[in-house]
Specification:
This is Polymerase/histidinol phosphatase N-terminal domain-containing protein. InterPro entries: DUF3604, Pol/His_phosphatase_N, Pol/histidinol_Pase-like, TAT_signal. Keywords: Signal. There is one protein chain. The protein is α+β, with helices and mostly antiparallel strands. Helices cover about 15% and strands about 30% of the residues. It contains 6 helices and 20 strands. The strands form 2 sheets. It has a 16-stranded mixed β-sheet that branches. It has a 4-stranded antiparallel β-sheet with strand order 12-11-14-17, with no helix packed on it. Strand 3 and strand 4 form a beta hairpin. The longest helix has 14 residues. About 50% of the residues are buried.
Length: about 400
C-alpha cells in the first residue's frame, strides 16, 4: 500500500554531532509508547506521566521529526531508522532526507517511495507513528522540512523559499517547518512572509542537535530568529529535533525533541496536533509541558487586545527532578532580541499560576521559555538578558487578536 497523504483540518558540513552542552542536567530514556507512561528503558528513570494537569482530551507523545539516512547525507541505513527510534522510546518519528542540494545528492523518486514503504511498515497506530517527509535544502536561504505530501520538491522544482511556499499551498494538508533558523545566511529571505502559506508553515526549530537557536546570529548583528520569524507574521509552533545524521537515531540525551499533545497516536491525530500548534520544544527526555493563557492552549489565539492574561503552566519531569528549581521567562516582541516582561521562579512538578499584563500594541505574540537558572546559555544574547541561562523548553506561541 503506498504511503498516503492524511487530510489535516483547515485553520489550523551537516554530519557534525555537537557535544552536549549542559549534559549533567539530563537523564536518559522515555516511555516506549503513548500508552506506557510508567515504563522505563534499560533501567533508566521514568519521566513524567502523559496526562496534563490543566487540560483534558489529549495525551502527550514524544517526537523527533527531523532525521537523515544514507539516502541523502546521513550514515545509517533507512531500513534501521524507525526501529531504532521506537526502541529509544520515541512515540512519533519522521525520516526527512534532503532533496538534492547541488553537490549533495538527495532523494530520488525511488528512494522517496522506499521511505514511504518503510514508514508504512513501521507505523503502528495507537503505539508508534512513523512519518515520511523531506528536507528542502537551499545553501543560502535555509532548509525547510515538509511532511504529509505525496511528492517532494528539490531546487529544480522550487528554487527559492517563495517557490516552495507556492508548491506547498498546492498540496492541502502538507505541513512544513523552518529548520535550524539562522544557520544559513539568507534566513528564508529574511523570513519573508507569505500569507497563503502561513497555516501550513507549522514549525520553527528552537532546538536542533544541542543548539538553542534563540540568539542564533545575534553576536554578528542579526536579529533573533524567533523574533524575526514571529514579527514577520508567521505563526509556527516551536519544536526541537536531533537532525540525526549518524546511526543512533533516538538515542540521544541533550539533543532536541518535541512534545506533542494528541487525541491519539495516529498519523491523522499527529498532523492535526501539529496544525493546531499543540507542541513544545525541549532537549530533555521525559519532560511534560502544557500551558494555557486565559484558558487557551499554547498555539492558540487570545481574544485579547489589552489587559491581564492568566497563565497556567504544567511542568514536570518526574521523580528524577523532584524539587529542582526552574525559571519561566515571558517572551514578547523585541527588535534584535525578545523582550522579557516577567520572570517567574518555579519548581519541577508544580502547576504554576501567574498573571501578566499584555497589550497588542507591543506586539501580537507571547512565548514561555523554561530554563535551568544554574546553567549558562551556550549562545548568549545581550549582556544581562534574562535568557542567558540554559533553556530546557519553549512553549509554542500564543497570538493576541489585533
Amino acid at each position: 500500500m503506498p504511503y498516503g497523504q492524511v487530510e489535516v483540518p483547515a485553520g489550523f558540513g551537516r554530519r557534525a554531532l555537537l557535544a552536549g552542552a549542559g549534559g549533567t542536567l539530563m537523564l536518559a530514556a522515555l516511555p516506549t509508547s503513548a500508552r506506557a507512561a510508567n515504563t522505563t528503558m534499560a533501567g533508566a528513570p521514568t519521566g513524567a506521566g502523559r496526562t496534563s494537569r490543566i487540560t483534558q482530551g489529549t495525551m502527550l507523545v514524544h517526537t523527533d521529526m527531523h532525521n537523515h539516512t544514507v539516502m541523502s547525507d546521513g550514515d545509517g541505513s533507512a531500513e534501521a531508522a524507525f526501529a531504532s527510534m521506537r526502541e529509544a522510546g520515541l512515540d512519533v518519528a519522521a525520516l526527512t532526507d534532503h532533496a538534492t542540494l547541488f553537490s549533495i545528492e538527495g532523494l530520488s523518486s525511488s528512494e522517496w517511495r522506499t521511505t514511504g514503504d518503510l514508514a508504512n511498515a513501521a507505523n503502528d497506530p495507537g503505539q508508534f507513528t512513523a512519518i515520511r517527509g523531506f528536507e528542502w535544502s537551499h545553501p543560502l536561504q535555509g532548509h525547510i522540512n515538509v511532511w504529509n505530501t505525496s511528492d517532494f520538491a528539490d531546487l529544480l522544482r522550487a528554487g527559492s523559499p517563495g517557490s516552495l511556499y507556492n508548491w506547498l499551498t498546492g498540496r492541502p494538508g502538507g505541513l512544513a517547518s523552518f529548520n535550524h533558523p539562522g544557520r544559513e545566511a539568507g534566513r528564508f529571505n529574511n523570513f519573508s512572509f507569505n500569507a497563503s502559506a502561513r497555516d501550513q508553515l507549522a514549525g520553527l526549530e528552537m532546538f536542533n542537535r544541542t543548539d538553542d537557536f534563540l540568539f542564533e546570529g545575534w553576536s554578528s548583528g542579526m536579529t533573533s530568529p524567533l523574533v524575526a520569524c514571529l514579527n514577520a507574521g508567521w505563526r509556527p509552533a516551536l519544536t526541537g529535533v536531533t537532525d540525526e545524521h549518524g546511526t543512533t537515531w533516538g538515542f540521544h540525551e541533550g539533543k532536541g525533541r518535541s512534545g506533542l499533545w494528541v487525541a491519539e497516536n495516529t498519523r491523522a491525530a499527529v498532523f492535526e496536533a501539529m496544525a493546531a500548534r499543540r507542541s513544545f520544544a525541549t532537549r530533555v527526555s521525559g519532560l511534560r509541558v502544557d500551558a494555557t493563557a486565559n484558558g487557551v492552549r499554547m498555539g492558540g489565539v487570545l481574544n485579547v487586545t489589552s489587559g491581564d492574561v492568566r497563565f497556567l503552566l504544567d511542568l514536570d519531569r518526574g521523580a528524577a527532578w523532584d524539587g529542582k528549581p526552574l525559571r519561566i521567562q515571558v517572551l514578547r516582541p523585541g527588535t534584535s532580541a525578545p523582550t522579557v516582561v516577567d520572570v517567574i521562579d518555579t519548581v519541577n512538578g508544580q502547576v504554576t499560576d501567574f498573571t501578566v499584563p499584555l497589550n497588542v500594541a507591543d506586539g501580537d505574540w507571547v512565548v514561555l521559555r523554561i530554563s535551568d537558572p544554574s546553567l549558562p546559555n551556550g549562545t548568549p544574547g545581550p549582556a544581562g538578558h534574562p535568557c542567558n541561562d540554559f533553556a530546557v523548553a519553549y512553549t509554542s506561541p500564543w497570538w493576541l487578536r489585533p
